[in-house]
Amino acid sequence: MSPHPSLQRLDHRPVPQGSAEIRAFLVVRNEALRLPDNLRHHRALGVSRFFVVDNGSSDGTVEFLLAQPDVHLFSTSGSFASSGFGMDWINGLLDVHGNGHWTLTVDADELLAYPGFESVALPRVCAHLDHLDAQGLFCMLLDMYADGPLRDIGYRAGDSLLAACPWFDPAPYRTVQAAAFPHVQLYGGVRERVFGFSGSVTPTLSKVPLVRWRAGMRFLLCTHALTPIRLAQMTGALLHFKFLDDFHGRAMTEAARGEHFAGGLEYKLYAELLARNPALTLRDSNSVRLQGSRQLVEMGLMAI
To answer: Residue 226: which residues within 8 A CB-CB, separation 6 or more?
Structure first.
């Protein structure tokens, strides 16, 4: 069964059937900088294998992924925007290779965190969720950033993303009711503070990345919305590492490509501000350095 007509399988590794392994799913484009630490982090948590869609990378991403023994790689030259921002590809992969599994759907710049993630393995968390008859984990997208100018971070592939960008905005964040499940969306944080987002362009800071998948489920708006499921009372966070040395170049590239939401309007706003202030720094006097999951629970940004 083909997950999607536009996807071409690039690897030839067998995919075990009937196993209880946790599987991760990603869509990537030119992510050779972030992928090494993304894979390392999620392997350490307990993810067994990764199903990755590459959408036209030219920076060595494909070569890197093909060299990973636990990665199954698919390629497409299709339009990211026309595929529901990659969700048509991911939903197909999830139906074929995620059915019956706990699945983690993330971007290359996102690292999953949950209460106790430093010492509690993800398989144990998923077993606990099964015991509670929960099918998914709601997460806040927490933008992480460095101490100084973005262009001067000096991050290299394989370095710890969290060590390079350990700061975040503790507040303000707001909850807005939404029509699609899970019927709430989170907004706020550093991107509103620094880039002045408002209205429909404001980035959504909530996702449901961890799901006990059943064929026929669907992500509807990236992983911000999906088919109704039973969510755990516990919540997690996706530590988000968008703001590395390559942010200036990415903003200009994606603003020109227009493949993201609203024709890339978010990236156009990034590019405009960076053009006015090339030495942009995100940290301010209210920024907080991440100390661990207990800190996020005490701040109300995650829940046990």
So the answer is: 136, 180, 181, 182, 208, 211, 217, 218, 219, 220
Please say if the pLDDT value at position 11 is more than 80.
yes
Q: Read off the pLDDT of each residue in 190-217 and give the average, rounded to a whole number.
A: 91
Under 8 Å CB-to-CB from 262, ≥6 apart: which residues? 200, 201
In this structure, are residues 53 and 75 in contact, taking their beta carbons and an 8 Å threshold? yes
Token output for 224: 């911000």
Domains of the chain: 8-298 (3.90.550)
C-beta atoms surrounding 202 within 10 Å: 19
Nearest one of 229, 182, 190 to 206, comparing CA atoms: 182
This prediction has a pTM of: 0.95
Residue 93's pLDDT band (boundaries 50, 70, 90)? very high
pLDDT of 203 reads 92
pLDDT of residue 201: 74
Q: What is the pLDDT of residue 1?
A: 63
Residue 263: pLDDT over 90: no
